[in-house]
# Entry
Amino acid sequence: MVDESKIRQAIELLLDGMGEDVTREGLVDTPERIARMYTQILSGKDEDAGEILSKRFKVDNSECVLVKDIVFYSMCEHHLMPFYGKAHIAYIPDGEVVGLSKIARTVECFAKRLQLQEQLSAQVADAIMEYLMPKGVMVVMEAEHMCMTMRGVKKPGSKTVTVATRGIFETDSNARDLFFRMLNAQ
Ligand code: ZN
# Structure
């Protein structure tokens, strides 16, 4: 749980450390505002991926399901700056599927935390493997990191791409090819 009163105190100290007058009009409510904001953008820690993925439906086939262009916003744990982009997730069911919106909610559950993109991709893949038990899952995430582009380390708009493969996507290159064919299909 986010402790809003600690965040308020910390932001006051941070602003002071930046050489700001924390009592000036534009800043007077900033600690309170940021405390509330962090409660929202870090709410994923209070969510349970197992619960999100608990409502499953039986299916006979085991055709690949791809949910693409899931927009997500997360926070880099090294710099406390946002990174955001899109996730594309495919899985090959083994008798059960979940509603498509649950896949997007699983991404949100892990994105709304202090994160690293590699870890985020892996956690989403692992949760889907654990709770949905498909034959395999593949997660591709592409994101812009403000900590890189804003500081000029990388050009604005440049993307970091991470991939996490589990099960059949790990062992079978045809499955990975299928992922990219489906991703690029219009
Ligand atoms: Zn960073």
User: Anything to note?
Assistant: The two ends are 42 Å apart (CA to CA). The longest strand covers residues 65-76. The CA atoms of residues 32 and 126 lie 36 Å apart. The pocket of zinc ion is lined by residues 76, 78-79, 81, 145, 147 (CB under 6 Å).
